[in-house]
Design goal:
Helices cover about 45% and strands about 15% of the residues. With about 150 residues, it is of the alpha/beta class. The chain has two domains: about 110 residues, no CATH class; about 35 residues, no CATH class.
Length: about 150
């Protein structure tokens, strides 16, 4: 399976168990690869709880990298379900994500109905609403990383 994937999307909130360890491990930089050729894309939200979950995830990434003597590149963050109408919490959180610099914010995806509908129907967004703004953002992210 590993030979077929270069990028692992680790969705939040993270489950910090064995499945997460496996996802992080398979996102590692393989022997002979240039930095940034493999790694993790991490969806986050513009809110405080997402920042806390991200901190826990990054601690796990660092621990696993140290334990297994591997390099795990963070390719970028995707700020998901963003809505500036939520006020200061959302806007200031977005600015904090952007100010990290590394990993970069690859996209800011709005909180639109198609994403929630796809989740409710247990369908992939790209199959449920392939022309939605979120689907366009996802395809753009994929193009940037390949």
């Amino acid at each position: 399976l590993e030979e077929h994937f270069d990028v692992i999307v680790i969705d939040s909130p993270p489950s910090l168990g064995l499945a997460m360890d496996a996802a992080i491990y398979y996102g590692r930089r393989r022997d002979g690869e240039k930095p940034g050729a493999s790694g993790l894309v991490i969806p986050v939200e513009a809110e405080d709880t997402s920042a806390q979950a991200y901190g826990m995830l990054i601690n796990q990434v660092h621990s696993l990298a140290t334990d297994y003597d591997i390099d795990v590149d963070q390719l970028g963050l995707v700020v998901n379900k963003y809505d500036s109408r939520r006020g200061y919490i959302a806007t200031s959180s977005l600015e904090k994500w952007k100010s990290l610099g590394t990993p970069p914010v690859l996209a800011v995806i709005g909180d639109l109905k198609e994403q929630r509908e796809a989740v409710r129907l247990q369908r992939a967004l790209l199959a449920y609403s392939p022309e939605s703004d979120q689907a366009h953002h996802m395809r753009e992210i994929a193009r940037r990383l390949t």
